[in-house]
């Protein structure tokens, strides 16, 4: 919140000329490159330091089950130590993985989004409904995740995965710079949605309802099975003592929350429409464009720079809709890893659970 307050104050005072927004936009590639280098060095640091983990150590450090294959490249990538920690002067001990999970990547994502919104305003003198929806929906996702931060302590990333290059690169470079591609596109070619904005809000609302209600149901049941809100739910009690829900949200699919998470991602991509534009420079403003489309004439890289769809219309979707496809693959892969972990943990009880809840993520489909 401190970072957001500083950025808000700077924006109120200087608008799109605020030095942070200018620096982020003008050094976009350099920032990405720097974050890749930092993530590489961080992965090397935690890998080397992991060899100091000894059984029965007083610091209660432990190695990740999947990060000790003996192949140093794989172990460096996946992470040898489960939760590497550091102590810094005047700062309490930091769990690197937990801190990295939300802080730099998620906050960086929103900073990039806002920088692109400010660039659109500087370019055209206004901010489109598509940009507002993109920034607001993604900011809501991030702020909600920060507010519900204790919930990440039960996720597979925290419980099972070690911290290596996969997570350091994902948190520092991949997440903020890939997830903000839609705002980057809209900064150059604004899209006005009009009534189509309702479709985006519908996707966001539907996805969030599934995601948050299913997670709340699970967390309530784990905290207090006798809570009146979840006491009616049916479950299987495993030999290990764990209880697996077979009714309510979790009776519809074994990872119904992933479905909600994925549907929310639609709201980040739909505002870009049939993405794709061409850039043309003219010494004299043409009366009409080659394809008959409307020119976008506010770009700052030349007095007569024009952005218009042209032959590129639709091809930009490869970039702006990439997140939807990538996120689906990510969630399916994560579900398969969690499935393997649960099968090993619960044995025959897991097979019984699968019979009662046969669908993995999408009820009656997958």
Give a structural overview.
The chain is mainly alpha-helical and about 375 residues long. It contains 14 helices and six strands. The protein is about 55% helix and about 5% strand. The strands form three sheets. A two-stranded antiparallel sheet has the order 1-2. Strands 3-4 form a two-stranded antiparallel ribbon. It is globular. The model has no long low-confidence stretch (mean pLDDT about 85).
Q: Which key terms come to mind for this protein?
A:
mainly alpha; two-stranded antiparallel ribbon; 366 residues; 6% strand; 56% helix; 6 strands
What's the gist of this structure?
The protein is mainly α and 366 residues long. It is built from 14 helices and 6 strands.
Structural class: mainly alpha
CA-atom Rg in angstroms:
23 Å
Strand content: 5-15%
Which percent bin holds the helix content?
Answer: 55-70%
Explain the layout of strands and helices:
Layout: H1 2-14, H2 19-26, H3 28-49, H4 72-78, E1 85-88, E2 91-95, H5 96-124, H6 129-147, H7 156-159, H8 165-179, H9 181-188, H10 197-223, E3 235-237, E4 243-245, H11 256-269, E5 278-281, E6 305-308, H12 317-320, H13 322-346, H14 348-356
Helix pairs in contact: 2-5, 3-8, 5-6, 5-8, 5-9, 6-9, 6-10, 10-11, 11-13, 13-14
């Amino acid at each position: 919140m401190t970072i957001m307050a500083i950025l808000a104050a700077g924006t109120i005072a200087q608008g799109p000329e605020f030095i942070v927004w200018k620096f982020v936009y003008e050094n976009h590639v350099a920032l990405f490159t720097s974050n890749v280098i930092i993530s590489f060095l961080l992965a090397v640091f935690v890998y080397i330091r992991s060899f100091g983990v000894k059984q029965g150590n007083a610091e209660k450090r432990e190695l990740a089950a999947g990060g000790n294959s003996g192949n140093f490249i794989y172990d460096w990538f996946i992470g040898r130590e489960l939760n590497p920690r550091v102590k810094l002067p005047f700062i309490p001990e930091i769990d690197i993985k937990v801190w990295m999970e939300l802080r730099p990547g998620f906050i960086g994502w929103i900073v990039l989004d806002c920088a692109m919104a400010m660039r659109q305003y500087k370019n055209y003198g206004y901010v489109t409904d598509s940009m507002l929806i993109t920034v607001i929906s993604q900011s809501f996702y991030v702020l909600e995740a920060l507010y519900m931060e204790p919930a990440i302590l039960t996720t597979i990333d925290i419980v099972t995965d070690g911290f290596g290059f996969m997570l350091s690169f994902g948190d520092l470079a991949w997440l903020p710079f890939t997830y903000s591609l839609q705002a980057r596109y809209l900064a150059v070619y604004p899209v006005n949605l009009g009534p189509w904005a309702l479709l985006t809000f519908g996707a966001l609302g539907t996805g969030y309802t599934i995601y948050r209600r299913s997670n709340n149901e699970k967390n309530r049941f784990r905290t207090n099975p006798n809570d009146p809100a979840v006491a009616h739910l049916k479950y299987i009690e495993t030999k290990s003592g764990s209880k697996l829900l077979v009714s309510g949200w979790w009776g519809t699919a074994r990872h119904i929350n992933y479905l909600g998470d994925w549907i929310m991602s639609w709201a980040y991509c739909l505002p870009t429409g049939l993405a794709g534009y061409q850039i043309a420079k003219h010494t004299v403003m043409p009366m009409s464009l080659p394809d008959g489309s409307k020119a976008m004439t506010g770009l700052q890289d030349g007095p007569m720079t024009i952005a218009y769809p042209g032959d590129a219309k639709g091809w930009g979707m490869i970039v702006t809709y990439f997140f939807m496809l990538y996120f689906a693959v990510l969630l399916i892969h994560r579900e398969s890893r969690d499935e393997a972990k649960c099968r090993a943990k619960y044995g025959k009880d897991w097979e019984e659970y699968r019979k009662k809840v046969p669908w993995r993520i999408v009820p009656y489909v997958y």
